Amino acid sequence: MMKIVTDSDPLVLLECLVAGTSHRPNLEKYEPKLKIGQSLHLTREPDSKYDDWAVQVHTAPATDPANVWLGYLPEGRNETVARLLDAGKNVSARLNHKSWETDWLHLDIEVLLHE
Predict the structure, then answer these.
(1) What whole-number distance in Å separates Cα of residue 1 and Cα of residue 16?
(2) Could you give all domains of the chain from N- to C-terminal order, each with its CATH number?
(3) How far apart are CA 17 and CA 94, in angstroms?
(4) Which of 87, 106, 109 is nearest to 96 (CA)?
(5) Which of 22, 26, 51, 71 could join 18 in a cystine, given CB atoms 3.0 to 4.6 angstroms apart?
(6) H or E stretch including 42?
(7) Burial of 67 (0-12, 13-18, 19+ CB in 10 A)
(8) Is the pTM of this model over 0.85?
(9) Can you give the C-alpha Rg of the chain in angstroms?
């Protein structure tokens, strides 16, 4: 069955894996709380020494005490999203899939542009 898209639906900008999850501490304890379909918060890291377009993926805004930093949008696929965030656009993400592959938490997300 085909989904009907309305003007109020967000535009899917990117489907990707979250990079760097193996470098985030305590994800093995937090992973059971991650729910498919949940919203994720994106935060620019403009002063990153590794990637000029670094975008962090979080479970909530950084000011929220319940926030968990999951990783990054992949380098080389993040410039458009970074530019939109820099311009103050309403961009978020949604968790589509999660699974463990050895000690790596595989998180598949959609990046969404809201009007």
Answers:
(1) 24
(2) 11-113 (3.30.70.2330)
(3) 11
(4) 109
(5) 71
(6) strand 39-44
(7) middle
(8) yes
(9) 14
Assess whether pLDDT exceeds 90 at residue 79: yes
CA–CA separation, 102 and 55 (whole Å): 25
Residues in the chain, total: 115
Each residue's pLDDT tens digit, 31-75: 999 999 999 999 999 999 999 999 999 999 988 999 999 999 999
* Contact yes or no for 58/41 (Cβ under 8 A): yes
Say if CB 55 and CB 110 are below 8 A apart: no
Cβ atoms of residues 113 and 5 within 8 Å: no
Q: Nearest to residue 45, comparing CAs of 37, 34, 56, 35?
A: 56
